[in-house]
């Protein structure tokens, strides 16, 4: 699932759409010549506002699934829960930082491309849902073919995360640049390289999170 009911009072800017004629619904009001500040609906009134419910549930499910996998391998200790929590949180933070830096790298003296931190955390946190599935597959598979299936499942999860990040960040970039005179075209081809780098980053992220000893 995509972003749903927004979290209250935490930045909750929406980049989603509510109308076929206007892909950004009524969440933003560009004003005269599209240069005035944006006006966002509060998250409780915008179903497209990012939320942290699924990312947080995915994060805790990741911690539990990683602990269960260690228990199966007889390497689990009580400290393992804290280790998985810290490791997952660190990866989540650095992935969010990467997205933030990628957005800011597209900014110029005339165009500022950015997003609230909690919005970025919501976007990047969906990777935990796919990594949890990856760990559960590893938990139940014991056949000789399991290694190949695990690699395929990891690649599939990374591709899904990459597609989601690219589509989401591209929509953020478009919503930021459409308020300026040159608009999206003013970025040239630089945004394509940024999106490609973000998509590629999902492979080491999934490998790092799924590598439970």
Q: How would you describe this structure to a colleague?
A:
This protein is mostly helical. The chain is 58% helix and 0% strand. Residues 1-37 have low confidence and may be disordered.
Shape: elongated
| Coarse structural class | mainly alpha
| Percent of sequence in beta strands | under 5%
* Amount of helix: 55-70%
End-to-end distance: 30 Å
Number of helices: 6
Low-confidence stretches: 1-37
Element order: H for helix, E for strand? HHHHHH
Largest sheet: none
Short description:
The protein has 213 residues and is mainly alpha-helical. It has helices at 53-72, 79-105, 117-125, 127-140, 146-177, 190-210.
Q: How is the topology of this model organized?
A:
Layout: H1 53-72, H2 79-105, H3 117-125, H4 127-140, H5 146-177, H6 190-210
List the keywords.
213 residues; elongated
